[in-house]
Specification:
By secondary structure, the protein is of the alpha+beta class. Among the domains are: 71 residues, Alpha-Beta Plaits, CATH 3.30.70; 75 residues, Alpha-Beta Plaits, CATH 3.30.70. The chain contains six helices and eight strands; from the N terminus they run ααβαββαββαββαβ. The strands form two sheets. The chain has a four-stranded antiparallel β-sheet. Strands 4-5-3-6 form a four-stranded antiparallel β-sheet, with helices on one face. It starts with a helix and ends in a 7-residue tail after the last strand.
């Protein structure tokens, strides 16, 4: 009897809860937060509309460091030469100027320079050369030799140096004392005119060489153009 009464009570309770849940009023909406005047509402990243393409382009234009530069076409560097004379070199530069990225004329020597002589050029007579020697010794330049033969006869040798820097220092000291000293490279051979080019991929270097009158072309490092 007691168990039956308990079951009836439980059924009645369940029916009461179901009726309450079905008949309960809708919950009131949450109140909207009031934003203080003059302060914009924080916006989540997902709520922010994407920038139009034109606006993004304007942002990149205003801040180019933020954009990743797209690589340009590949370039290569060559030397054309040697040229017969400066006129032929300049004519080739004018003809190729608009077709290359950059170009640079360059003078080279046939063989390496082994050193430098500092000299006074030949005087008109032996007597004038000896008088100049006496003035040099009086000025403190006693390392000298009057040249007796060859194309520099009656000139005065004032020292031989392994580097141009050291030779130039001695030349400057002589010139400061009033002596017109000159540098003469040892070795080196004749000078030759070359044209260094940086060109875009697809440039026909062989055709450019033939048209310029140059006899050779060489591939070089573009960093050497500066």
């Amino acid at each position: 009897m007691f168990v039956r009464a308990l079951i009836v009570l439980l059924v009645a309770l369940n029916l009461g809860v179901a009726a309450w849940w079905a008949l309960r009023p809708e919950p009131a909406p949450a109140p909207q937060a009031t934003q203080p005047p003059g302060i914009p509402r924080l916006q989540l990243l997902r709520e922010k509309p994407s920038q139009p393409v034109t606006e993004q382009a304007a942002v990149i234009a205003a801040n180019p460091e933020a954009a990743v530069a797209s690589p340009g076409p590949a370039t290569q560097c060559f030397s054309l030469g040697p040229f017969a004379d400066d006129t032929a070199l300049r004519a080739t530069m004018t003809r190729l100027q608009a077709r290359v990225v950059r170009l640079r004329p360059r003078t080279s020597t046939a063989t390496a320079i082994r050193g430098y002589n500092v000299v006074l050029p030949p005087f008109a007579s032996r007597e004038l050369a000896q008088a100049a020697s006496a003035r040099l010794v009086a000025a403190g330049f006693d390392d000298l030799l009057v040249i007796n033969d060859g194309p520099e006869t009656n000139g005065i040798a004032l020292g031989r140096y392994g580097s141009q820097q050291a030779a130039s220092r001695h030349q400057a000291a002589l010139q400061a004392a009033g002596f017109p000293a000159q540098l003469r490279p040892i070795g080196g051979g004749a000078e030759a005119q070359w044209l260094d080019l940086e060109v875009r991929e697809g440039f026909d270097v062989a055709t450019a060489r033939i048209g310029s009158g140059a006899t050779r072309q060489q591939t070089i490092d573009c960093a050497s153009l500066g």
